[in-house]
Design goal:
By secondary structure, this protein is an alpha+beta fold. The chain has three helices and nine strands; from the N terminus they run E-H-E-E-E-E-E-E-E-E-H-H. Strand 5 and strand 6 form a beta hairpin.
Length: 205
């Protein structure tokens, strides 16, 4: 079953947001990588928000990002965690939702203490980097319970209900008239076609 976008786990147990995605966009000089800053303590455990593969990482404090780790998620989106103290996972490694992948810190600009303690979480809508005020998505809006491997709700259709009524009337199928094309209705349609073929009233395709 294809992964559904969203339903992500927060990478830290800290819920306090010190600077939101919109906050990054509204700065006098907007961030080129708008994301969500969680005010977690130094050395906090950071976990994968969703299943995916580690495709990029840095163990250097250089640049505005400091140490970072990037996951291409199975749902087609990309997440990067910045300003780390230590990267635990390795490039190319498959990780599961909730698996520890790094420790938080404040690295950046060539220093261990380029910022106050936090983790910056960036979300892109595809497997690839893009930079600019409107290049990323608001991670907070994608938080939620794991929604993968959940069967979609059955679709109710009026034409299916009409067929069910007809099958019940003409063939005594005993179907529940719910408008859902499930296995019982599909089998009843097949049985009706077989019966009509025997009577020369249906030739099929």
């Amino acid at each position: 079953m294809t992964d559904v976008k969203g339903g992500y786990l927060r990478p830290t147990t800290t819920t306090r947001v010190s600077c939101s995605w919109q906050c990054h966009r509204d700065r006098p000089k907007p961030s080129s990588e708008p994301g969500t800053d969680y005010a977690c303590a130094y050395g906090s455990s950071l976990v994968a928000p969703e299943d995916g593969v580690i495709v990029d990482l840095s163990t250097s404090t250089a640049g505005a990002t400091g140490r970072y780790i990037t996951i291409d998620l199975d749902d087609g989106q990309r997440i990067r965690l910045l300003h780390l103290s230590r990267v635990i996972a390795r490039r190319g490694q498959r990780v599961k939702r909730g698996q520890e992948i790094a420790k938080s810190w404040a690295s950046g600009f060539g220093r261990e203490w380029g910022y106050g303690a936090h983790v910056h979480v960036t979300l892109w809508g595809r497997h690839g980097y893009a930079f600019g005020r409107s290049a990323t998505l608001d991670f907070q809006k994608f938080l939620g319970a794991d929604n993968d491997n959940v069967a979609p709700a059955a679709v109710k259709e009026q034409w299916v209900a009409d067929v069910q009524n007809a099958l019940n009337h003409w063939f005594k199928a005993g179907l529940v008239v719910d408008g859902i094309l499930g296995p019982r209705t599909t089998k009843a349609i097949y049985n009706a076609q077989v019966q009509l073929q025997k009577e020369g009233l249906y030739k099929g395709k």
